[in-house]
Write a structure and sequence with these properties.
Shape: globular
Number of helices: 2
CATH superfamily: YVTN repeat-like/Quinoprotein amine dehydrogenase
Structural class: mainly beta
CATH topology: Methylamine Dehydrogenase, Chain H
Strand content: 35-45%
CATH class: Mainly Beta
Number of domains: 1
Number of strands: 35
Distance between the termini: 80 Å
């Protein structure tokens, strides 16, 4: 009997120690030298040979000139013109939906992927991939009723790797710019679809296609298109939108590689700059005319092997960056030295269980709170929409709760309301004030899956998509569609 008691006690002690060790292991920061196993790694796309010739923008087809020119709203690029992902157009949106949810105005079938829409004055632009043609295709639709106006495309072989298309076009009065899955940049006249110029970032700059293809969205800043080739010699570059002439280049002495993150304009101490999270580190690049393209600051202290979210400027000279797959987040303090130079210092880094982090979408700074959907490895907070203190992202202010998780879906703020789309196409409208959140409506809009494309809002309408379909819905409850409505079956 005594022997049995001793053995039982030993087992209990060992079990307790094992459980304690497990909790310690789960809560510790992920060491920088550990590269996590990633879904799809066994079919990761390899960099295309620079010898492969792609005739960017070779093909064109026009269908119609007819669209509603009275629509003047804009969501002209990824996260909107000011990169905030907040719609501030002043159009009142409904505070409640009918029982059947917001009305679907039109829908269109798309090739498999996650590329989302840009909206510009009555037109919708999306970079589709058409498997039957092996084509990257910029398609332009009427915002009013969804009929297609024109399409321009080129042939490039993109194999399925959890979808193909990834990026949002950048559009203004004169141009529409796209980056395809294999790093081809195309610029066309946004009205006529006429080809203006193209750049193959692999062939010309030695870019390497990221895992799961290019996720970087082009940025239009004034008259320039800002791109991050992250190639052999060039980290960032500015290109004249009208002509395609290279205006400036940023060197890449550390050999950083292209990530899925997009370039974000920020201003520190009166100096405009472009902030980019590359594979290798984070850098601030001057956007001022007198020294455009100059590296103002950089840090390799936080360097995940996969980065999808774009960085977010915080108050008091801070930058927030996040990544999935166990890498968590980091806050940087940008300092302006007495000699006029800049310096970036890591304030603190966190694993995904400790603080706000994001895996796929980018954060929103709204009402002095930074919001994001936490990743699947965030413990009990996984997949919840969460708001944190910008001064301390480990201090949570709001969480949607265990009963309201969103997977990897996108979110946006419009008319002071949050709209959050989950993986399966259910859209939730919420009002969030401090720690309190109220659901104003929740409805499944798309009967599909992997509804990950970023949301776009303009003229009281929202464009959303899943893996195979793009849908336009009425957020005001008052829109009447004129003419024939497309249902995506043609």
């Amino acid at each position: 009997m005594r022997t049995l008691i001793i053995i039982t006690s030993a087992v209990l002690i060992a079990s307790t120690a094992a459980v304690a060790a497990l909790f310690w292991w789960l809560d510790r920061p992920v060491p920088a030298y550990i590269t996590p196993g990633l879904p799809g790694q066994d079919n990761a796309p390899k960099a295309r040979s620079t010898g492969e010739k792609v005739e960017i923008g070779k093909f064109f087809k026009k269908f119609s000139d007819d669209y509603d020119r009275s629509l003047t709203g804009e969501w002209g690029q990824f996260r909107g013109r000011d990169s905030s992902n907040i719609c501030r157009d002043g159009i009142p949106l409904a505070d409640a939906w009918p029982r059947q949810g917001p009305r679907i105005l039109w829908s269109q079938k798309l090739g498999e992927g996650h590329a989302a829409a840009a909206i510009y004055k009555g037109r919708v632009f999306v970079l589709d991939y058409i498997e039957e043609l092996k084509a990257d295709m910029l398609r332009c639709f009427s915002l009013d009723d969804g009929h297609e106006l024109w399409r321009r495309w080129y042939i490039v072989d993109v194999k399925r790797n959890h979808g193909r298309s990834r990026t949002v076009p950048a559009v203004n009065e004169n141009v529409a710019v796209t980056i395809g899955p294999k790093c081809q940049v195309m610029c066309v006249n946004s009205g006529s679809g006429d080809l203006l110029w193209g750049i193959d970032l692999i062939a010309e700059y030695g870019s390497i296609v990221p895992q799961w293809y290019t996720g970087q969205c082009p940025l239009i800043d004034g008259s320039a298109v800002v791109l991050a080739p992250a190639g052999k010699d060039v980290l960032l570059m500015g290109v004249d939108a009208a002509s395609g002439k290279v205006l400036w280049k940023t060197p890449n002495p550390s050999g950083w590689k292209m990530s899925h993150s997009s370039v974000v304009p920020m201003t520190f101490y009166g100096h405009r700059m472009y902030v980019y999270c590359a594979l290798g580190g984070i850098a601030g690049i001057s956007a001022e005319p007198q020294d455009a393209g100059k590296i103002l600051w950089e840090s390799s202290a936080w360097s995940p092997s996969v980065v999808a979210p774009s960085p977010q400027q915080l108050p008091d000279g801070m930058v927030f960056a996040a990544a999935g797959y166990g890498f968590g987040c980091v806050t940087l303090k940008i300092k302006h030295e007495s000699d006029g130079t800049f310096k970036a210092e890591v304030v603190k880094s966190f694993n995904p269980r400790q603080a706000l982090s994001l895996e796929q979408q980018s954060p929103i700074l709204y009402n002095n709170t930074i919001y994001g959907i936490r990743p699947k490895d965030a413990g009990d907070g996984r997949c919840q929409l969460t708001g944190a203190n910008p001064g301390n992202v480990a201090e949570f202010i709001y969480a949607s709760g265990r009963e309201l998780r969103f997977g990897l879906g996108p979110f946006i703020v419009a008319d002071n309301k949050f709209y959050v789309l989950d993986d399966n196409g259910t859209l939730t409208m919420m009002k969030i004030e401090g720690a309190d959140g109220k659901i104003l409506g929740s409805q499944r809009i798309i009967e599909g899956n992997d509804a990950w494309g970023p949301l776009a809002v303009a003229d009281g309408r929202m464009i959303l998509r899943d893996l195979n379909q793009m849908v336009c819905i009425d957020l005001t409850g008052k829109i009447e569609v004129q003419g024939k409505v497309k249902n995506g079956k043609e």
